[in-house]
User: Which sequence fits this backbone?
């Protein structure tokens, strides 16, 4: 009787042959399974689908640079530091990802991380890309408005003083005010720049305090903000795919392309029973029953 070691070697050999045959299918209905992110960590943060590594793009049904994950959830892990790109070239440091019925992502602008003290300058609005399924949850996020380089006839907030910070290239006075305290008005005609950024709720905010006006608002910015993932807007095909244990593949144009099954097969909508049986039987230590080979690991 062959030894247990020989059986394991035979099992691995047959498994490699099966995978090679699967990926050698000339019909074009296979994909490179390495593009689908298994659960892993970057630093001490757990990462898994629907996030995907931005550099793990492959071909799906002739569409180059496609990815296994959701639009707007491309991440990068560089030397144990995790970042997520929201819009354009703006990348944000990921402080934490919590998974559950609602997936939450805690982010902070990388520019703010470098300011340990002093005057932190904001130079862009924080927005989410279209079709990203990311949103700012009202229960945990509020906003600061930066009025930079202004000459007001009237103030955007009653009884408020400008910050003491002076920014290069901007003449006039600047203010940092919670959005819910800004008075109605067309303030853009009085300022060189106006930006709105999200921050965590319940942070100490007093626009009239000396600490705030001397750059203390930067401490609130460095706490970051939160985004939540809303999957209710998924394409119907994507919903069916995930219910069949598949993962959704998208193009760079954010279009749903195909359902990517655990065994390396590509389907238009959902995985078949044999696609998921392959995974279950492999975990159980057997070759899939539809492969024509049965090998039980004794």
Assistant:
């Amino acid at each position: 009787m062959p030894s247990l070691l020989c059986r394991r070697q035979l099992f691995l050999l047959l498994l490699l042959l099966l995978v090679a045959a699967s990926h050698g299918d000339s019909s074009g209905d296979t994909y490179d399974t390495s593009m689908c992110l298994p659960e892993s960590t970057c630093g001490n943060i757990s990462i898994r689908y629907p996030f995907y590594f931005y550099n793990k793009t492959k071909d799906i049904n002739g569409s180059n640079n496609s990815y296994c994950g959701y639009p707007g959830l491309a991440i990068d892990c560089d030397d144990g530091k995790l970042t997520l790109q929201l819009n354009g070239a703006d990348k944000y440091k990921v402080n934490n990802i919590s998974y559950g019925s609602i997936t939450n992502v805690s982010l902070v602008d990388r520019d703010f991380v470098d300011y340990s003290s002093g005057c932190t300058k904001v130079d862009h609005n924080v927005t989410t890309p279209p079709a990203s399924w990311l949103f700012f949850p009202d229960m945990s996020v509020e906003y600061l408005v930066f009025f930079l380089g202004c000459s007001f006839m009237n103030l955007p907030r009653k009884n408020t003083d400008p910050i003491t910070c002076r920014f290069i290239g901007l003449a006039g006075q600047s203010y940092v005010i919670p959005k819910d305290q800004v008075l109605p008005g067309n303030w853009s005609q009085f300022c060189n720049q106006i930006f709105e950024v999200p921050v965590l709720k319940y942070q100490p905010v007093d626009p009239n305090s000396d600490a705030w006006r001397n750059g203390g608002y930067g401490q609130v910015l460095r706490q970051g903000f939160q985004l939540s993932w809303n999957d209710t807007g998924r394409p119907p095909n994507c919903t069916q795919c995930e219910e069949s244990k598949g993962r959704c593949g998208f193009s760079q144009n954010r279009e749903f392309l195909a359902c990517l099954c655990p065994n390396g097969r590509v389907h238009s909508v959902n995985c078949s029973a044999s696609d998921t049986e392959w995974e279950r039987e492999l975990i159980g230590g057997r070759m899939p029953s539809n492969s024509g080979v049965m090998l039980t690991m004794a």
